[in-house]
Amino acid sequence: MTDRIANAQLRGKVMSADEAAALIPAGAQIGFGGFTGSGYPKELPKALAARIKAAHEAGEDFTVNAFTGASTAPELDGVLAEVDGMGWRMPYQSDPTLRKKINDGTIRYTDIHLSHSAQLVAEGFCGRLDFAAVEATRITEDGSIVPTSSVGNNKTYLDMAEKVIIEVNSWQSLELEGMHDVWNGYLTPPNRPAIPITNPGDRIGDAFLTLDPGKVVAVIETEDPDRNSPFKPIDDDSRAIAGYLLDFYANEVEHGRMPKNLLPLQSGVGNIPNAVLDGLLKSDLENLTSYTEVIQDGMVDLIDAGKLTVASATAFSLSPEYAHKMNEGAEKYRRSIVLRPQEISNHPEVIRRLGVLSCNGMIEADIYGNVNSTHVCGTRMMNGIGGSGDFTRNAYISAFVSPSTAKNGAISAIVPMASHVDHTEHDVMVIITEQGLADLRGLAPRQRARKIIENCAHPDYRAQLTEYYEAALASSKAKHTPHDLAHSFDFHRSFLENGTMRLS
Ligand code: 0RQ
């Protein structure tokens, strides 16, 4: 047995993943740890999927409802989706098998702002929580948990669940201890105090997750790595988009609208945010800070280069190479990284106070600046809103980035009317594609439309968009936000019918 379980009572609960899975009945509501491929339980979901598969083969109904922090990995979302083992899932996912089952109607999915998800559970909106299943680096003598590579919603799930299953993972570095900051002062209204974070690196809580050891029904020992995909190499479009964003920030500094070392950065995940981080690395900017959701490879490089002094997040989202690097160097990195519960890392109050600069990917934006982050052609769920709404709504400057086309040019990222709206024109300040940047601050809708079409749309779609806008302007009775509702979704309809948004 590993020496990572210092509590004698919990040492007595060690069992196999199959034995632990056997404790979970059909219909159970389970709060799984895990956030963007980090710190999720790895053996229990596989064993549970095998149990569910066997039950289905025996003709029994068996699904569980799965709550997480955010996306997990094939060993959790993938295996449970594969056996049709989830009835319902929240709050964010990105697994291809799960996505397919959500879109074919097998699995119900509730896509929630990440900062809201713990509150929904804590206040009982989602019903009772039967189990919390979380990963631990180690269990202390008093039965507290040292979290691993994510904190996510673990605190709330441990507080609210009737029973707890812990995976103690010796792949995770013991030196992570001290990196986490779990605030226990977050209460339900009307008793909520101000969150005492005034700088991204402020530590306001404990380095452990405390729980009642009497709730623990199983402890599983594992030695499995987190499973994150490596990033794609940075392409020319991503580099161009990153360049526009950094020039824009430089201009803000020049005009005295933000300090020389910028303001705390939030960065979504993906190729373009990674290119932005690479651009920062190559710039002469110094003393940068980050108040974000996930620590990516590029942030580790910035810390190594001494350019990023502190990064606050709720999880890592690292490539295998960088996850290894983090494990080797956790003792050093914990001096500049703080991992918090996601309701604090993504909290509107703190984001607004710190003046965070947000930058997230999008599916499409319309000519007035409404952004769709989640639904292809308004109906097919991609991943979910994640933390993009938490940050966009409250950022000092909110930016959205995307190539101007997708699927080899068959799709325009700029459309007449967004087919689903996650971020409204009121919240979206800057849109950037490889074509250019549209600074929408202070512009009225008609000014926004011209700027977005001219600066951000791909040349192949500019004429089509201008034609739509001019016709809408001419025909619309009200001229504030002109639309021609008979043709607002021609681009999408054409894609669904002909495989391209190019109108014949
Ligand atoms: O599909 O891989 O099959 O080719 O969407 O697109 O351009 O690689 O960009 O990885 O940044 O993802 C909005 C999905 C963008 C992401 C979204 C297709 C495209 C490709 C990926 P393929 P790219 P990204 C922090 C913040 C919401 C959550 C969020 C996202 C695939 O950024 O999930 O921001 N955001 N969280 O081909 C059809 C379009 C398309 C399209 C792109 N208009 N129509 N397909 N694609 N545009 C993180 C967390 O919250 C945890």
UniProtKB/TrEMBL annotation:
<feature type="active site" description="5-glutamyl coenzyme A thioester intermediate">
    <location>
        <position position="293"/>
    </location>
</feature>
<feature type="binding site">
    <location>
        <position position="407"/>
    </location>
    <ligand>
        <name>CoA</name>
    </ligand>
</feature>
<dbReference type="InterPro" id="IPR046433">
    <property type="entry name" value="ActCoA_hydro"/>
</dbReference>
<dbReference type="InterPro" id="IPR017821">
    <property type="entry name" value="Succinate_CoA_transferase"/>
</dbReference>
<protein>
    <submittedName>
        <fullName>Succinate CoA transferase</fullName>
        <ecNumber>2.8.3.-</ecNumber>
    </submittedName>
</protein>
<feature type="domain" description="Acetyl-CoA hydrolase/transferase C-terminal">
    <location>
        <begin position="334"/>
        <end position="468"/>
    </location>
</feature>
<dbReference type="GO" id="GO:0006084">
    <property type="term" value="P:acetyl-CoA metabolic process"/>
</dbReference>
<feature type="binding site">
    <location>
        <position position="383"/>
    </location>
    <ligand>
        <name>CoA</name>
    </ligand>
</feature>
<dbReference type="GO" id="GO:0003986">
    <property type="term" value="F:acetyl-CoA hydrolase activity"/>
</dbReference>
<keyword id="KW-0808">Transferase</keyword>
<feature type="binding site">
    <location>
        <position position="363"/>
    </location>
    <ligand>
        <name>CoA</name>
    </ligand>
</feature>
<dbReference type="GO" id="GO:0008775">
    <property type="term" value="F:acetate CoA-transferase activity"/>
</dbReference>
<feature type="domain" description="Acetyl-CoA hydrolase/transferase N-terminal">
    <location>
        <begin position="8"/>
        <end position="219"/>
    </location>
</feature>
<dbReference type="GO" id="GO:0006083">
    <property type="term" value="P:acetate metabolic process"/>
</dbReference>
<dbReference type="InterPro" id="IPR003702">
    <property type="entry name" value="ActCoA_hydro_N"/>
</dbReference>
<dbReference type="Pfam" id="PF02550">
    <property type="entry name" value="AcetylCoA_hydro"/>
</dbReference>
<dbReference type="InterPro" id="IPR038460">
    <property type="entry name" value="AcetylCoA_hyd_C_sf"/>
</dbReference>
<dbReference type="InterPro" id="IPR026888">
    <property type="entry name" value="AcetylCoA_hyd_C"/>
</dbReference>
<dbReference type="Pfam" id="PF13336">
    <property type="entry name" value="AcetylCoA_hyd_C"/>
</dbReference>
<comment type="similarity">
    <text>Belongs to the acetyl-CoA hydrolase/transferase family.</text>
</comment>
<dbReference type="InterPro" id="IPR037171">
    <property type="entry name" value="NagB/RpiA_transferase-like"/>
</dbReference>
<feature type="binding site">
    <location>
        <position position="387"/>
    </location>
    <ligand>
        <name>CoA</name>
    </ligand>
</feature>
